Amino acid sequence: MEIILEYLPLLIPLFVIQLALMIASLIHIFRHKTYKVGNRVLWVIICIAVNTIGPVIYFIFGRGEE
User: Fold this and answer.
1) For residue 27, which of 13, 47, 42 has the smallest C-alpha distance?
2) Is 56 helix (H, G, I), strand (E, B) or coil?
3) Residue ranges per domain, the chain?
């Protein structure tokens, strides 16, 4: 338990960044209908299942042209 409390100041900002990325990517996925690769269901699964890297992958590879 002491180890968790020791690393808590580092873990909280990482958790907030991860959550913000996931929310931003999910909002973008549900507002837009076109994607470079894949479909909506695929990107939702990737963004949720692959937590931190999933939203980054979506913004790099999946985000379609406006």
Assistant:
1) 47
2) helix
3) 2-62
pTM for this predicted structure: 0.77
Whole-Å CA distances, 14 to 19, 29, 31, 50, 62 = 9, 22, 26, 15, 23
What pLDDT digit, counting tens, does each position of 6-24 carry? 989 999 999 999 999 999 9
Phi, psi of 63 (to 5 degrees): -65, 120
Q: 18-25 long-range contacts, Cβ below 8 Å, gap at least 24?
A: 18/51, 18/52, 21/52, 21/55, 21/56, 22/47, 22/48, 22/51, 22/54, 22/55, 24/55, 25/54, 25/55, 25/58, 25/59
